[in-house]
């Protein structure tokens, strides 16, 4: 017998954890929620707070063998995926020449390659009415010196999501790209290891609860993008009307 499931990557902390809690509280007709992250203990702690049947999957999704493992589980258990939330990712602040190579290529592997691999792995097990939520960022709106690789990876996520959405429309599967500004999560514990973000950005800080509530609502309403808070919505408009070289130069100047 097949089972209806939800899959959430990056579920051990931050926005991924908040997705798990809100989906657990509100989504009906789900047999299991699969939580994916590397830290098994954090996932088990989270699972203990949830009321649905939870599957804890400790895996590194940047490793191809782990993607194969996920694919085998989906096939063997005849899963029907109602919702996929790709929330795993990280960013590092600092100029390209200052950051370690492994830190930068790691962002590409997790934010882009792993997200693509998980999405492709799950697509055969999704049918009409399913939703895909991809965590992009307002950093995807324009190139950002001092945050170059991260912004580029999120531009990939946003572009990939928009194209995939068109490909899946005939199957009645809808993709929403979530593009928040700064969110009050442990993200900055890693991101600011080598540098600090613009103080003006932190003035727009929002809670993960707010981002996730809007993202789930927008996904339910089949929206293309979910952009939380008026300042970030204004920034999105700005990036559509002002030449990007001017915005990029202004960001660099603000960073000093």
Q: What would you note in describing this structure?
A:
The protein has 256 residues and is an alpha/beta fold. Helix content is 48%, strand content 15%. It contains 10 helices and 7 strands. It has a 7-stranded parallel β-sheet, with helices on both faces. The longest helix is centred in the middle third of the chain and has 22 residues, at 101-122. It starts with a strand and ends with a helix. The relative contact order is 0.13.
Rg over C-alpha atoms, rounded to the nearest angstrom? 18 Å
Helix segment tally? 10
- Outline type: globular
Total strands: the figure is 7
Helix/strand/pairing category: alpha/beta
Report the end-to-end length measured between terminal Cα atoms. Answer: 60 Å
- The proportion of residues forming helix, as a percent range, comes to 40-55%
Widest sheet: strand order? 3-2-1-4-5-6-7
Q: What characterizes the major β-sheet? A: 7 strands, parallel
- How much strand content do the residues show? 5-15%
Uncertain spans, ≥5 residues at pLDDT below 50?
none
- Mean pLDDT, to the nearest integer, reads 93
- Order of H and E elements: EHEHEHEHEHEHHHEHH
